[in-house]
Amino acid sequence: MSVTTDTGPVLSADGKPLKRSLNKALRAQKLRALALIAPLLIFVLVTFIAPIADMLFRSVENQIVSNTMPRTTAELAEWDSDTSELPGDNVFEALYTDIFLAAEAKKHTRLGSRLNYEQPGVSSMFRSTGRNVDEIGEDQIKALEDLNGAWEDETFWFTLMTGGDGAEGNPSLLKQQAASLSNLTESVYPADIGFVPGQAISDLLPQTASAYTSFALFSAVDNGDVVAEEEPWAAVKLALIQDLRSGVDLSSYSGPGAAELAEAQDLATSLPPVDFKAGFIDIDEEWADAENWTTIKMYSPDFTSGYFLNAVDYQKTPDGFAPRPEDEQIYNTLFQRTLFMSLMIMGSCILLGYPIAYLLANLPMRTANLLMILVLLPFWTSLLVRTSAWKVMLQQQGVINDTLVWLGLIDEAGRLVMINNQFGTIVAMTHILLPFMILPMYSVMSTIPQTYVRAAKSLGATNWTAFWRVYFPQSVPGIGAGSILVFILAIGYYITPEIVGGTTGTFISNRIAYHISSSLNWGLAAALGSILLVAVLVLYWAYDKIVGIDNVKLG
Amino acid sequence: MKLTKTLLATTALTVAGASAHAQDMADSMTLVSWGGAYQESQHKAYVEPYLAMNGGVTATWDESSAEAVAKLRAMNEAGNITWDLVDVVASDAMRLCDEGLAMEIDHDELLAPAPDGTPASEDFGDLIVSDCFIPQIVYSTTFGYRTDMVPAGTEPPSSVCDVFDLETYPGKRSLQKRPIDNMEWALYCDGVEKDDIYDVLSTDEGVDRALAKLGTIKDQVVWWSAGAETPQLLADGEVFMGSTFNGRLFSAIAEQDQPIGMLWDMQSFDLDGWIVPTGLSEDRLARVLDFLRFATDTQRLADQAKYISYGPARASSAPLVGQHATLGIDMAPHMPTDPANAGNIHIYDYEWWADNRDDLDAKFQAWLAQ
Amino acid sequence: MADTANSDAFVEFERVQKSYDGENLVVKDLNLSMPKGEFLTMLGPSGSGKTTCLMMLAGFETATHGEIKLDGRPINNIPPHKRGIGMVFQNYALFPHMTVAENLSFPLEVRKIGKSDREAKVKRALDMVQMGSFGGRRPAQLSGGQQQRIALARALVFEPELVLMDEPLGALDKQLREHMQFEITNLAHQLGITVVYVTHDQTEALTMSDRVAVFDDGRIQQLAPPDELYESPENSFVAQFIGENNTLEGTIKEIGEDVCLVQLDDGELIDAKPVNVSKVGDRTTISIRPERVEVDTAKLGDKAHTLKAEVMEFIYMGDVFRTRLKVAGKDNFIIKTRNSADQRRLQPGEQIEIGWLPRDCRALDAV
């Protein structure tokens, strides 16, 4: 028996609130239901939701710049791009370390390609710099190696940097370098790589220790080598020279290689300073162009609106957003064209599909089945075959033109241009998408009993009035469902416009495909795709507002 | 009982033997190429003989070369490389190599020397445009025209600039839907010296000039994106002239007997070859390298020319180029590398296009859409 | 049979035939004439051709042969919307996308009747079916009975002289159906309209109609007022189809003006009224209503023939007793006796004698 009071909640027999008992009883049911749909849910998440989320993310993601050049972008924060002066030496020194590491990891050209979308020429700037970054400080390193063969000896370096057996290590430096490096290489660095930088040496020669640690991590994990058996990079040696030139006091150092270090410091201070800026400009004079630096600084943040701006024919400038040059504007045109042509295709599908669906719904079963097979026939042939068939039909030396010439309706010179333009795309896509219009229309129409039209006629309506006032309004949900289906399919269509669209009949999806597979500008492709997705959702929302989505019926 | 034991032992040995072998070399390969007649020539010239020599090995073709860079990038991101050997054009090979998606190759160590002992690197010579690239063929993009549509009393076209001459040679043209090659031809025919083309094209005025020149024939152009389109358009009489790969034109002319003539003027030279993706397991790599050594030797490259009119990339293969496999005609005169054909050629600048492709493509597409 | 070429007739079928496939006739040589103001029901089992006749009258089917006249005019070639016939459909066919008022105003709109007129007529029609406050609703928001009323109102709103109803009450429950039967006949008489009503429910037909046309096998088997139909069926089909009925097979032994003697197949003799028999030796089916069977044979007089019967089952039904007997070898002979104070309750197994007045038992065609 349940106990009820006037004020308290309804209780069940065991005294617990009835609501909680009910929830408990329902929970098992809900869990079972969830378990039943779980496979589908997981499938949809993995194959549909996740890729879309990934796409949306890619359209704003820009971590490649800061991941590849963490030191440079940090130093560049100080630089004022309005001055049109080049950044200072500190930036170029950071650039040296970044590019050196990126070149080792082969990531510099990808960054080059990324920035080349915004600034032509950056691609080769990064490629040639990656190839020749060793030339910077070449003379100084050579002098160091000539001074003492130890500086070319991997064991000496290893001992120097670890501080010898039993020396106090500096694992935090290792950790810090591993974190920074893994952003670049996307490798996972274990705690034990067979090397820990010595505490003493990392206090004394911080740049050298950092550079050597990066080198050690990269050798051990990415190259799979033993650190102690590898001669350090030029970058490590250059870091040593820079450390020594900065005037460190070696007198208190007594660890391994103290003598060699002292000797090297004498040499380093006597050598001319390493001019990183000149070195880079020697490799590629594009580095002397402040515009390139402006681009790098502008695209330093981890997230960018650049792809979206590009997708609507705008671009980022130091002064904010501005329209792209007129001779590069294309996406707005393409979006408008895609929408316009999808609507045209949808409209012609309605016009052609309605009578067929009506016939299907009102013919005797046998005839209707035959007609249905004819409607479905296109589904059983490959999309490419159907599109190519339209090519044969519509081209200037094609079947239709030949027939018209033969009939004498047009002369040889006046053959109609019906393909490689919007007309061709609309014709071919209408044909291909027609079944998607007919089927929902048919399934709605077949649920409208004949008696409605009969009733209308018995009430005095002519055939037309009976159709228009009584039959048609009831078939609108089918038109709605077919239209949404056809429109959404059309807006994302790719193959048919590519083959028969020429230059004026192509869709935005053709550019998306181009950026995915040819230019590899996935960010821009993702931005274009996101805009398309939003456009579809907005139209869907508008449809719901105007017509009402519950007016859509598939049967 | 004893028999069972023996049987078991034998089975175990066989299994062990098989798995030991499998660890050495994988017994299947996925090769990526372009499909069509070209892939067929590779299959006939290298793959069939190799499979015949190595029983139990299977090779699967994937016709994805056109999207090779995109797909390799995606595979690399997903950490699952399913391809073993990929046929790409030189510019894609450079890109893949730069990004570390293709393996760097020691050509002399991994590839067979020429029969006279010349090391592979010398035999391929300048064609090794990237450390990751193993060249197979030299091909060119050039023009074909309908011989029966040449206006009466006019010489057939002989220069690439006839493409822009609508008065003498009326009719439609088909051009590839991309700026590469078209921009160069336009400037060349607008009077720019061959050596200055890229300097001119590097300026905004130069781009405008090239597009203006293309604009003179724009409404007569059918733009293609697949190599098979121009031969088809020519065969249908849809266009009078069209650019495509010389091998496609050769098969339309020689194998299908179409009334098509071919221009050997300012044809754009390019290379096609193999790259090995990075990140292959040891057994797969071993199999691929074994195949690669065989498939790129002097004889195999010469054999390929029996099926398609692309020039073998090895110098030592040239003298071995014989006759067409079924037609019995000499192939050498149909090669883009034949001195008679290579009088005036255009060598396109990979580096320049790598820098300017995004920018020019945006301009080109905007121009197309106007 | 119905009289043909009646000059007073409002609706007339003259030798009408209908075939859908060119091989079988669904309606065979139909002749029917009804005067203005009549409520005529077409009754018959499904497939008997009654709905086809209605559809031909409405204009949705064309007659294969013969002529249909309305008010003296042949209407074979007049399209349905010009016939001016109101129609109520089995599933009401109310337009789901229009409100009740819009549904009613539809026939007025297509007749180009002015707005104020329309509104007045719609209101009057709704009031007529007691649905005055439902004008703004959609059909889906109404109950079956309410929809039925609206359908009726819609068929009447444009004041047709002839209204066709195709099993309009089929979807309603029993109580509602009986109520609606009453309302429909009332309305019809009030408005003085002519109604052709199709049903397969004989109670409905008997209670509502002025005349009933019983259809079978594409023909009208009998066209008569309900009482005549029940009491004087002209053939075995009608006798069987209308009401409960006992039949026995036999041969004519003697035949007179008002009475004949039938020898049943087991040899017993019984009296009947000759209806569909002509001479001695004809096979016949005799037909007797359960309530006309007399158990107290003393009441029939001495000369009456009687039959032996064995009581098989006794069912108490309140106002009547229903008893199943075994007569002449058949054990499905039913008799109904009134539950009056002196009525005996027969016990199963009991041997009794039964008989009837010759005028109550009709000797019909052999089945």
TrEMBL record, chain A:
<feature type="transmembrane region" description="Helical">
    <location>
        <begin position="423"/>
        <end position="444"/>
    </location>
</feature>
<dbReference type="GO" id="GO:0055085">
    <property type="term" value="P:transmembrane transport"/>
</dbReference>
<feature type="transmembrane region" description="Helical">
    <location>
        <begin position="476"/>
        <end position="495"/>
    </location>
</feature>
<feature type="transmembrane region" description="Helical">
    <location>
        <begin position="339"/>
        <end position="361"/>
    </location>
</feature>
<keyword id="KW-0472">Membrane</keyword>
<comment type="similarity">
    <text>Belongs to the binding-protein-dependent transport system permease family. CysTW subfamily.</text>
</comment>
<feature type="transmembrane region" description="Helical">
    <location>
        <begin position="522"/>
        <end position="543"/>
    </location>
</feature>
<keyword id="KW-0812">Transmembrane</keyword>
<dbReference type="Pfam" id="PF00528">
    <property type="entry name" value="BPD_transp_1"/>
</dbReference>
<keyword id="KW-1003">Cell membrane</keyword>
<keyword id="KW-0813">Transport</keyword>
<protein>
    <submittedName>
        <fullName>Putative spermidine/putrescine transport system permease protein</fullName>
    </submittedName>
</protein>
<feature type="domain" description="ABC transmembrane type-1">
    <location>
        <begin position="335"/>
        <end position="543"/>
    </location>
</feature>
<dbReference type="InterPro" id="IPR000515">
    <property type="entry name" value="MetI-like"/>
</dbReference>
<dbReference type="GO" id="GO:0005886">
    <property type="term" value="C:plasma membrane"/>
</dbReference>
From TrEMBL, chain B:
<protein>
    <submittedName>
        <fullName>Putative spermidine/putrescine transport system substrate-binding protein</fullName>
    </submittedName>
</protein>
<dbReference type="Pfam" id="PF13416">
    <property type="entry name" value="SBP_bac_8"/>
</dbReference>
<feature type="signal peptide">
    <location>
        <begin position="1"/>
        <end position="22"/>
    </location>
</feature>
<dbReference type="InterPro" id="IPR006059">
    <property type="entry name" value="SBP"/>
</dbReference>
<keyword id="KW-0732">Signal</keyword>
From TrEMBL, chain C:
<keyword id="KW-0067">ATP-binding</keyword>
<dbReference type="InterPro" id="IPR005893">
    <property type="entry name" value="PotA-like"/>
</dbReference>
<dbReference type="GO" id="GO:0016887">
    <property type="term" value="F:ATP hydrolysis activity"/>
</dbReference>
<dbReference type="InterPro" id="IPR017871">
    <property type="entry name" value="ABC_transporter-like_CS"/>
</dbReference>
<dbReference type="GO" id="GO:0043190">
    <property type="term" value="C:ATP-binding cassette (ABC) transporter complex"/>
</dbReference>
<dbReference type="Pfam" id="PF00005">
    <property type="entry name" value="ABC_tran"/>
</dbReference>
<keyword id="KW-0813">Transport</keyword>
<keyword id="KW-1003">Cell membrane</keyword>
<dbReference type="InterPro" id="IPR008995">
    <property type="entry name" value="Mo/tungstate-bd_C_term_dom"/>
</dbReference>
<feature type="domain" description="ABC transporter">
    <location>
        <begin position="11"/>
        <end position="242"/>
    </location>
</feature>
<dbReference type="InterPro" id="IPR027417">
    <property type="entry name" value="P-loop_NTPase"/>
</dbReference>
<dbReference type="InterPro" id="IPR003593">
    <property type="entry name" value="AAA+_ATPase"/>
</dbReference>
<dbReference type="Pfam" id="PF08402">
    <property type="entry name" value="TOBE_2"/>
</dbReference>
<keyword id="KW-1278">Translocase</keyword>
<keyword id="KW-0472">Membrane</keyword>
